[in-house]
């Protein structure tokens, strides 16, 4: 199958890139020094009691070294800390700090505002249909 500028794969990939670029630009405009991926990583950390690097890599579908680089950067900014496991000292849990939770809250507000702006011309019915199609695509891809 040939990929053209109107093919699903091209449009979907370009849309994701455009949304990430838009949020990165807005983070920068608001002097927030994290990337959209780091924002996603922080969001994951708030939704799980315990997170280790390999779990985060699996959730984000990235290799462990890429996740480690993100964690290192977030740790330098004091948004996360590594905590030794009580049983296995080789294992380190990644925990979001209070400062990390504050920056995440700011990022979520920015993303919410951008989403609202981007959805202005999309009806509720169109969005529901789009979500259903995405769910089916994901289910089909995981078979």
Automatic annotation (TrEMBL):
The family database entries (SUPFAM superfamilies) matched by this protein are listed as: Winged helix' DNA-binding domain (SSF46785)
Q: In terms of domain of life, where is this protein from?
A: Bacteria
InterPro entries for the chain? HTH_MarR-typ, MarR/SlyA-like, WH-like_DNA-bd_sf, WH_DNA-bd_sf
Keywords on this record?
DNA-binding, Transcription, Transcription regulation
The answer to keyword DNA-binding applying to this record is yes
Locate the transmembrane regions by residue number. none
**Domain HTH marR-type, chain residue ranges per copy:** 5-139
The record's section on PROSITE patterns has: HTH_MARR_2
Q: Which GO terms describe its molecular function?
A: DNA binding; DNA-binding transcription factor activity
| BP term (GO), one | response to stress
Q: What is this protein called?
A: DNA-binding MarR family transcriptional regulator
Name the source organism: Arcicella rosea
């Amino acid at each position: 199958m040939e990929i053209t500028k109107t093919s699903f794969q091209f449009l979907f990939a370009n849309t994701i890139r455009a949304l990430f670029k838009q949020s990165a630009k807005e983070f920068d405009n608001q002097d927030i020094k994290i990337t959209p991926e780091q924002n996603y990583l922080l969001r994951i950390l708030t939704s799980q009691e315990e997170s280790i690097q390999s779990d985060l890599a699996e959730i984000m579908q990235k290799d462990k070294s890429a996740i480690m680089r993100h964690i290192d950067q977030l740790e330098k900014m004091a948004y996360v800390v590594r905590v030794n496991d009580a049983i296995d000292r080789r294992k380190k849990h990644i925990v979001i700090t209070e400062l990390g939770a504050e920056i995440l809250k700011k990022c979520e507000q920015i993303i919410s505002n951008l989403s609202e702006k981007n959805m202005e011309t999309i009806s509720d019915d169109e969005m529901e249909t789009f979500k259903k199609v995405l769910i089916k695509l994901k289910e089909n891809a995981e078979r």
